[in-house]
Specification:
2 domains; 5-stranded parallel beta sheet; alpha/beta
Amino acid sequence: MPLRETDWLEKNINKVKIIDCSWHMPQTNRDGFKEYKKRHIENAIFFDLDENSKKNTHLPHMLVEIDVWEKIVSKMGITNDDEIIIYDNSDVISSCRCWFNFIYFGHDPKLVHVLNGGLSKWVDERRKVTDETRKVKISNYKSFEKIDLVKTKKLIDQNIDKQIFKVIDARSLERFKGQVQEPRKGLRSGNIKNSMCIPFQNCLNKNKTFKNKDELIAVFKTCLKNLNEKNIVFSCGSGVTACVLALAYSLINDKYLPCIYDGSWAEYGLT
């Protein structure tokens, strides 16, 4: 189960590793790390989504090299056997990307979870928060890449004719249809040919918890006839909100492992 509820975490808070992956779009003028230092769930370790993405590329939020990932996670004191709970203060989007990263790099999917509702739900329920940071004992984390969980632009282009997998875009319908300009400079408007669109917000309630299974089934039936399909690839603007859809789909298809187009429209929409 990729989700954990707040009451479960409160009861098991000393049995798991907790990650705060708060990240905000640049236009919000919010700083996830500054917010973490002021208030976070007890024992939480901060994961910087921008800092822990690939450096030698112009594309945002791309997966790092495997040796870099091992160093990142080892510095966080996480071991291969740890159960991990990831949350954010960013409307659930960045925690889902962090969840995907751990699965891609070989952590047991049964041990990686997103906190349903994130920090805002935790705070609304008046559960304990702190500004104290925990001391971390560096581990020796080892990874292996599940390369089938990421698609490249070449594979996306080949699939337009071959139709081996279905591509679902998490951006808004207006962006998908090319009715508005992209927020990132240098990108054309539009979508990948033969792709479909489910705005990621359609999977969430107003309080940023995920909708229940029946509601999610109705959401995905707008694009898929067979909800047992495994060959589904999610895309978005920069590979972040695609992971919200990937997690939501895994809630209704427990055989599905998240698969995304890492470059997403930040790569495909380049002019």
